[in-house]
């Protein structure tokens, strides 16, 4: 029995190190290859030994697909390709490919773990991620130039179709592009709206398909459009479930709230820290503050912490087709990513007096500049930290959000948090309503939840099972879900046979189910359905005719000719739907069945009816003999 | 399958393909060469143009002198310029299901088709094609609308009068169908019917046909199209290039195995090498400027201009031109330059890698930043303040009939220091210049047409091996001016089928198979038997379901259980449906084994007689006779149904069913 198998190596009942193995119709695909921000040991990366136990990664996997540039979705790529040794195709969108090395580099700078530093430094030095071959769609994977370093096979990045996403897909849903990985495996991308270049993917082999959402957002924001999918009815939908139990209020309310809090803090002379990742939310919030500052004519400075900003904004400018329609329409007149009020941050500014707003990386306060600033400002209750996104367990961000006010820092120092801590859900994930909406749009046969917390998943699982009457799964890491499928078999039907059948279907009695009869010729992997006559002809076989002739004895003293006339009128009256004919030679035909009347050699009072038919008319022939055996009605 | 040919212009095609149950329009090109018959529209009142003498017939009859003006021996229509539309009568255009656009030059007639023919379908195009196509249309509308002209000449179009006119007016085709330019409102409405597509995307049309755009290498977002069903494939090649300029390279491999390849949009100047033309362009430009003259480059606001600017970017400093201002004047100049930078995905490899740095893919960003290149919406406004000579001006329209270029022709035409350099290949430069004669300025003709030439085409055809090639008639013979150059035509086997405007071609195409899905339950019930090594057969009896052009075979319904005779049976209920087909039989019956089998089943007193063609088996007791021949068996018996059925089943055991 064919089946689809899914095994999360990461993100099973957890958020972080997304990595899901899917086996579909003999193809093995890895969805995302992320790292876990909350760990610095082995748990940082997905457990690739699950595959490597039994062989080489490259042999096992047909391809790897990366949904977007966040490190919990692509952060393990260097480790995966450089250390574990995968050199098969990796699919991602162009913005993902451009931005992911930047974030890796960003991470390298703040990583405390020495090993990570080494790996990512190596990547950086070799610019391995930049050795990207942009291949023509139908081209084969070319080996990029080999690096001088013998330690690694160079990364082979195979980009998804350069036009993998229809940028306008968010506003005008249509069919999205489709890529062929090989003759059988197809990938189709949908706009996900989570970050620049984020995509959802449909993986399809024949009539079996799986949709993986990556992270997605069902409501448009200030720079991206909303995710959408068509009614593609996959066998399985694998969806993130970060906000499995949350239903968020309207975006506008949240924005107003955010601006109000920032404004109040700045008015009373406090400092606002907003930990963000360099790309994504940062740009959205910058656009928000920029327009607010302009409208309110505020003077307090807004800083962006890393040197990345300018670069990041450059990316946004070059990838305008991936943003929302409004930005795309107006970019010629005014580029939304050129900010007047947002300036570059310098370390020294953190100690300057007076109000300010600072965007600092990273977003979960687990290291780097945002953590440094946080430590400086935490003691003053006038200040405020606004966490605009989800924080992974184990990070400082997660701790303060769960109410902890005394933090143990390295060196047994205890940091008392007096500043106000606010959480504003700006992370661009779908909430429970959005997830249900997407399931409703795609109409999958099964749903599988990843990228969420087990307890919340449980709730959503029940809700999905109740509302959509489909099975819902939530495997833990390393646990395999197996779904039996029953794919149909495509064959070629000869046009002659099909047209004959379709023409018959137009007849008045077409309501009765009609049987199509033909012969399936299977030669190698070529399956063709043809009419039986054609099959015989093609194979050089002659038809064998099987004919029956039955003698039916009738008591009738009249002449043979008159008997024939009586038979004719009898059959004519009984068989209204059939073609009954009386031929000049005295014989009677019903369709192709021939009936002749003859005198009995011995008994003149008996006539013999010879009923003759071929095997093809078996039912009718048999029926006629039994009908005639009952005798003819008396002539009136 | 039929092809309706609506345009006679080989590089601005418009064909309609009827394939299976779909009607697909391939491109929507607008033939603008008709505007060459009109007087230019000057931005600034031109005494020269307004004082041209009216034209009169040989006999001195001057009733046309309001409509027709004479300039240096040529006659021009003094009217709002008009365009030659694709045929609208050959086929009912409201039946067109979809329009496929191959590049932004080939969609200029779109508003005429989508807004005025009852068209209700969808248009498919790539995002760059739509955005740049919009810019081209916007520029065109702007050029024409900003110079309102009261007069619209129609008298000369009268067939009897047209006959009396001098060439080329006399020979102009279909003048009665020529139309004025559309409005911006019509453009917007037409463009709103477009659905964006990406290369390699498979678009299903009614479940019957799949269409796929492929990179064609000619312009930003330019595509060739594959139109296919499961068993047939038509390739539509339009405006393709193998040269490495800025767009993504052409996808040739996907064109393989086509039943029919429709070939349009080859180079219009097969004798000119684009590379040497660019060289000539640069050297003439610097020569003129060094001598203190101005250079005018009539051009479209997108396309080759990006390559020219890139060339100049590398050339300016080495040629000592850094102090010379370059002006790009078009209502869409800014948009065009900005848009070119955001379509990284559609660019060639070198340009794509720039966005990873991140840097703008085209160097004209730097030219703008360093003030070497300035762009203006028109000659009015800021431009008049900044204008310094000598200078280089890129502006439209290449026909020289409207746009800012008309002003520069009038301004610079009188001085031999100045040069006009023609780079766009769409208009013959002598005809374009005709209304400006006599002219003192130098004219350099270096047309840059990167589309396929005949050598590349024949190589391409050898590689992709289509069964049949269909192309405009112009490609099946050498160009009229170079009739000895038999190398300047398509050479393929079998010879290409050619079409001309308003022709309908029946494409040589026999459909034999269609895809059908066998449901898994039915597939499980099939019993394959091997007939020859590697060939197996299975007889299939199934119910056919057809929906949205998709065919599915499902297992036959189980025979309904007779329901205890609640209803009185009518006689007709018993009559078998003669449409239930029995399988065909094949094979032959070995007599000896057959007799043994009969004996095994309790028949006795069996007699076998030989006949000329076979045998007769007599079952004397049952008064039954069985004739057995190579290809037939005949059972003749009394009316004993039980016996007959027993014999039938024994015979069938020896035969194969189909």
Please explain how this structure is put together.
- The complex is a heterodimer of chains A (636) and B (658).
- Chain A has 18 helices and 31 strands.
- Chain A is α/β, with parallel strands linked by helices and 636 residues long.
- Chain A has four domains: 3-112 and 159-246 and 429-476, Metallo-beta-lactamase, Chain A (4-Layer Sandwich); 251-423, 3-Layer(aba) Sandwich (Rossmann fold); 491-506 and 515-539, no CATH class; 547-630, TATA-Binding Protein, CATH 3.30.310.
- Chain A has a seven-stranded mixed beta sheet, with helices on one face.
- In chain A, a hairpin with a 5-residue loop joins β28 and β29.
- In chain A, α5 (94-110) packs across α6 (114-126).
- The longest helix of chain A has 17 residues, at 94-110.
- Chain A is elongated.
- Residues 112-175 of chain A have low confidence and may be disordered.
- Chain B is α/β, with parallel strands linked by helices and 658 residues long.
- Chain B has three domains: 2-270 and 451-506, Metallo-beta-lactamase, Chain A; 274-445, Rossmann fold; 585-657, TATA-Binding Protein.
- Helices cover 24% and strands 23% of the residues of chain B.
- Chain B has 18 helices and 32 strands.
- A seven-stranded mixed beta sheet of chain B has the order 8-7-6-3-2-1-22. In chain B, strands 9-10-11-12-13-20-21 form a seven-stranded mixed beta sheet, with no helix packed on it. A six-stranded parallel beta sheet of chain B has the order 16-15-17-14-18-19, with helices on both faces.
- In chain B, α2 packs across α5 and α3 packs antiparallel against α5.
- Chain B starts with a strand and ends with a strand.
- At the A-B interface, α5, β8, α9, β24 and α15 of A face β8, α8, α9, β23 and α15 of B.
- β25 (515-523) of chain A pairs antiparallel with β25 (535-547) of chain B, so a sheet runs across the interface.
């Amino acid at each position: 029995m064919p089946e689809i198998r899914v095994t999360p190596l990461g993100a099973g009942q957890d958020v972080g190190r997304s990595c899901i193995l899917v086996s579909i119709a003999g193809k093995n695909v890895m969805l995302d290859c992320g790292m876990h921000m909350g760990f610095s040991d082995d748990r940082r990366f997905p457990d690739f030994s699950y595959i490597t136990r039994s062989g080489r990664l490259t042999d096992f996997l047909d391809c790897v697909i990366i949904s977007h540039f966040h490190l919990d979705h692509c952060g393990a790529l260097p480790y995966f390709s450089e250390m574990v040794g995968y050199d098969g195709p990796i699919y991602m969108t162009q913005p993902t490919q451009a931005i992911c090395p930047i974030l890796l580099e960003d991470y390298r700078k703040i990583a405390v773990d020495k090993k990570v530093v080494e790996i990512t430094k190596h990547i950086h030095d070799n610019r391995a991620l930049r050795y990207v071959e942009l291949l023509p769609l139908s081209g084969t994977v070319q080996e990029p130039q080999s690096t001088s370093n013998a330690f690694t096979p160079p990364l082979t990045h195979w980009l998804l179709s350069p036009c993998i996403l229809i940028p306008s897909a968010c506003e005008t849903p249509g069919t999205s592009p489709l890529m062929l990985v090989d003759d059988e495996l197809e990938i189709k991308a949908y706009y996900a709206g989570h970050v620049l270049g984020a995509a959802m993917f449909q993986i399809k082999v024949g009539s079996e398909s799986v949709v993986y959402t990556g992270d997605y957002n069902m409501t448009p924001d200030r720079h991206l459009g909303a995710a959408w999918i068509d009614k593609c009815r996959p066998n399985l939908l694998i969806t993130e479930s970060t906000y499995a139990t949350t239903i968020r209020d309207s975006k506008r309310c949240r924005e107003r709230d955010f601006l109000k809090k920032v404004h109040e803090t700045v008015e009373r002379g406090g400092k606002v820290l907003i930990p963000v990742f360099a790309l994504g939310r940062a740009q959205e919030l910058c656009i928000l503050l920029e327009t607010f500052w302009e409208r309110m004519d505020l003077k307090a400075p807004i800083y962006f912490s890393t040197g990345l900003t300018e670069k990041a904004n450059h990316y946004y400018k070059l990838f305008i087709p991936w943003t929302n329609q409004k930005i795309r329409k107006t970019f010629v007149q005014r580029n939304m990513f050129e900010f007047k009020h947002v300036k570059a941050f310098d370390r020294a500014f953190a100690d300057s007096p007076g109000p300010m707003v600072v965007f600092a990386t990273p977003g979960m306060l687990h290291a780097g500049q945002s953590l440094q600033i946080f430590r400086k400002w935490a003691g003053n209750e006038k200040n405020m930290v606004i966490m605009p996104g989800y924080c992974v367990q184990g990070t400082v961000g997660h701790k303060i959000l769960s109410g902890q006010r005394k933090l143990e820092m390295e060196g047994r120092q205890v940091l008392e948090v007096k500043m106000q801590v606010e959480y504003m859900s700006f992370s661009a994930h779908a909430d429970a309503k959005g997830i249900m909406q997407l399931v409703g749009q795609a109409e999958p046969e099964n749903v599988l939840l990843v990228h969420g917390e087990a307890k919340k998943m449980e709730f959503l699982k029940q809700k999905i099972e109740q509302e959509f009457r489909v099975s819902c799964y939530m495997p833990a890491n390393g646990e395999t879900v197996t779904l039996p499928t029953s794919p149909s078999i495509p064959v070629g039907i000869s046009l002659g046979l099909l047209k004959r059948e379709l023409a018959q279907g137009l007849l008045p009695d077409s309501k009765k189910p009609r049987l199509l009869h033909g012969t399936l010729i299977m030669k190698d992997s070529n399956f063709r359905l043809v009419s039986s006559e054609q099959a015989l002809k093609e194979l050089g076989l002659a038809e064998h005719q099987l004919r029956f002739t039955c003698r039916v004895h009738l008591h009738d003293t009249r002449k043979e000719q008159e008997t024939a006339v009586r038979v004719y009128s009898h059959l004519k009256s009984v068989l209204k739907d059939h073609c009954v004919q009386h031929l000049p030679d005295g014989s009677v035909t019903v369709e192709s069945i021939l009936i002749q009347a003859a005198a009995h050699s011995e008994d003149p009072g008996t006539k013999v009816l010879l009923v003759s038919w071929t095997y093809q008319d078996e039912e009718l022939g048999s029926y006629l003999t039994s009908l005639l055996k009952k005798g003819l009605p008396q002539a009136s | 399958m039929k092809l309706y040919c609506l345009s006679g212009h080989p590089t601005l095609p418009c064909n309609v393909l009827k394939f299976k149950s779909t009607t697909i329009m391939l491109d929507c090109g607008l033939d603008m060469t008709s505007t060459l018959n009109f007087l230019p529209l000057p931005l600034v009142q031109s005494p020269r143009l307004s004082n041209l003498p009216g034209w009169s017939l040989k006999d001195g009859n001057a009733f046309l002198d309001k409509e027709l003006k004479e300039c240096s021996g040529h006659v021009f229509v003094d009217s709002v310029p008009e365009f030659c539309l694709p045929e609208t009568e050959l086929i009912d255009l409201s039946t067109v299901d979809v329009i496929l656009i191959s590049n932004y030059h080939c969609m200029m007639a779109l508003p005429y088709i989508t807004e005025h023919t009852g068209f209700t379908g969808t248009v498919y195009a790539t995002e760059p094609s739509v955005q740049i196509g919009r810019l081209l249309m916007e520029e065109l509308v702007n050029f024409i609308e900003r110079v309102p002209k009261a007069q619209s000449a129609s008298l000369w179009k009268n067939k009897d009068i047209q006959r009396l006119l001098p060439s080329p007016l006399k020979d102009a085709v279909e003048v009665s169908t020529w139309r004025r330019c559309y409005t911006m409102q019509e453009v917007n409405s037409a463009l709103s019917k477009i659905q964006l597509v990406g290369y390699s995307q498979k678009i299903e049309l009614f479940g019957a046909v799949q269409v796929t755009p492929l990179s064609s290498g000619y312009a930003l977002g330019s595509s060739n199209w594959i139109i296919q069903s499961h068993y047939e494939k038509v390739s539509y090649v339009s405006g393709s290039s193998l040269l490495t300029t800025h767009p993504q390279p052409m996808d040739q491999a996907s064109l393989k195995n086509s039943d029919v390849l429709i070939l349009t949009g080859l180079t219009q100047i097969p004798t000119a090498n684009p590379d040497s033309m660019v060289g000539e362009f640069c050297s003439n430009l610097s020569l003129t400027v060094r001598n203190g003259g101005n250079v005018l480059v009539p051009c479209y606001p997108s396309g080759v201009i990006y390559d020219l600017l890139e060339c100049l970017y590398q050339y300016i400093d080495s040629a000592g031109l850094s102090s010379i201002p370059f002006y790009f004047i078009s209502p869409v100049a800014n948009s065009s330059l900005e848009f070119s930078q955001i379509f990284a995905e559609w660019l060639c490899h070198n340009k794509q890698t720039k966005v990873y740095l991140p840097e703008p893919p085209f160097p004209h960003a730097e030219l703008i930043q360093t003030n070497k290149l300035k762009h203006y919406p028109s000659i009015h406004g800021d431009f008049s303040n900044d204008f310094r000579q000598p200078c280089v001006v890129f502006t439209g329209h290449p026909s020289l009939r409207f746009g800012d270029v008309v002003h520069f022709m009038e301004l610079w035409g009188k001085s031999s220091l100045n040069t006009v350099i023609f780079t766009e290949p769409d208009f013959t430069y002598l005809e374009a210049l005709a209304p400006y004669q006599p002219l003192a300025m130098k004219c350099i003709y270096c047309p840059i047409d990167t589309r396929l030439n005949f050598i590349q085409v024949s190589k391409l055809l050898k590689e992709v091996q289509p069964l049949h090639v269909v192309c405009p008639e112009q490609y099946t013979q050498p160009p009229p001016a170079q009739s000895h150059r038999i190398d300047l035509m398509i050479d393929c086997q079998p010879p290409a089928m050619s079409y001309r405007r308003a022709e309908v071609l029946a494409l040589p195409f026999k459909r034999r198979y269609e895809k059908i899905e066998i449901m898994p339950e039915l597939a499980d019930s099939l019993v394959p038997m091997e007939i020859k090594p590697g060939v197996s057969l299975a007889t299939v009896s199934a119910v056919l379901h057809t929906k949205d052009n998709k065919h599915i075979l499902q297992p036959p319904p189980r025979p309904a259980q007779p329901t205890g005779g609640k209803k009185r049976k009518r006689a007709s209920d018993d009559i078998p449906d003669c449409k239930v087909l029995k399988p065909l039989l094949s094979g032959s019956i070995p007599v000896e084994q057959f007799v043994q089998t009969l004996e095994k089943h309790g028949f006795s007193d069996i007699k076998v007689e030989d006949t000329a063609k076979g045998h007769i088996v007599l079952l004397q007791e049952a008064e039954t006779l069985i004739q057995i021949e190579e290809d037939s068996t005949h059972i003749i018996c009394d009316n004993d149904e039980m016996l007959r059925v027993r014999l039938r089943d024994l015979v069938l055991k020896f035969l194969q069913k189909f």
